[in-house]
């Protein structure tokens, strides 16, 4: 077989997922990664016996992971149904502890987490969100009985959006305007295009419940006041398949993907920053990517090039302007970037904290919601108050910290670097403020005297280390005008064999979305390289899957923390 050569720039989850898929389609794939290890945003920081996932911690849709671990070399397996019947079973999957599947189990152990999130309000009360309708209703009733009817309304509307927007259309690649116009009337009918927060406000009177049912897009860089209501589907994605954790941390999932990619014959080169995508052609004629140039000056050729890097970085830093008719510098500059984050990684002594009243995932909301979001996303100023997401994985997996300690990170949304904030000055100050808050409010008593490890990253890390324009934390901002056809295209409009994969392209950010993106990009590659259309359109005969070497777990494990 004459194997064509593919190059992927970056080893984020999207890059790795596409690498696995391209190996399965019959390409010889090399991943060039700037950093010394894989994962991108999911890079792992190890220090003093602690393991810190630097980025994603909430895993949803374990089926997407299982699908990747099921792929075989040269099997061209893009024809599987995207949502096979067996994962759509309406039985209560959360309580039954759905695990990720036999092929995943060979690489990484993934377990469900309950509750999904504990959401603390500023007055110290909280809401445990766990996807169980009865417990959800009980907690709504305790906060605002009148909102029970609103929950029914929200639930039904979110379900309709999930069915159409995720199950039926989730994998649609909007490469031309017509494909988008075809589905737009449906989305308007479902009320999925107006801002999520206004949609939620129509259902709930209580400001607390308005926050509970709208905060989720923040986890993928979206402003709940601005993202279209199609994002209400996140609620249903979580409810349907649960929230999961990779034992040992998300880094173990990344390691599993690397292993799988290498087993399929792929190659990864670390410490290999790409400085140029080498293109041939002219502005108005056909343009072809011939390969890439690395920072050390070496050149590598390929039949196709994919960037898993940031959209703005890819076009404005790696491709010379004479090859970009559509994605010119002005367009790149006008594209709105998501907000950024300050993330504090810390380890602390746990003696005497046996009754620590925290869960694995804690959302700690500040005193203001709408005003705070406006300051972060629009005014781009550093607010005096903050909300945060506090992650304590050692509550589920003690191996994340040395004995007698906990490993944690807390993530604070902040403006991206369009703000001009000097993070060398403000980063340490905000870090101190946040840790003091966690101690004084009693979330972690005597935290500061218990700390044995502490470090933080600011938007400068996203800009300088991860090459993300303006230090965006989550890629191109998910707003209506940057969704579907209007989001950067997975197949470049400028260069015929250049592709994008990852949070900036379609369908968007978050680990499940970038895995979907990898499949969508792989389908475009398969189409353009003449690989069987049946395979691409999802109607091929089911590919043969290897018999599981590891038996599925019989007694499902659910971490309740
Ligand atoms: C703190 C944080 C928490 C998050 N939490 C969650 C969560 O709980 N659940 C969830 O689903 N999502 C979460 N997300 C979002 C999720 O992590 C991302 O959407 C996803 O991981 C992005 O993957 P990606 O494939 O787009 O690539 P990225 O992770 O952005 O990786 C891109 C890679 O490209 C490399 N690169 C860039 N330029 C070059 C170059 N010129 N040459 C070579 N290499 C280059 C970079 O070094 C990097 O490794 C979180 C994000 C952050 C930052």
TrEMBL record:
SUPFAM superfamilies: FAD/NAD(P)-binding domain (SSF51905). Keywords: Carotenoid biosynthesis, Oxidoreductase. The keyword Oxidoreductase applies. GO terms for biological process: carotenoid biosynthetic process. Residues 539-561 are annotated as: Disordered. Pathway: Carotenoid biosynthesis. Pfam families: Amino_oxidase (PF01593). Residues 13-525 form the Amine oxidase domain. Residues 547-561 have a biased composition (Low complexity). GO terms for molecular function: oxidoreductase activity. Belongs to the carotenoid/retinoid oxidoreductase family. This is Phytoene desaturase. It comes from Phormidesmis priestleyi.
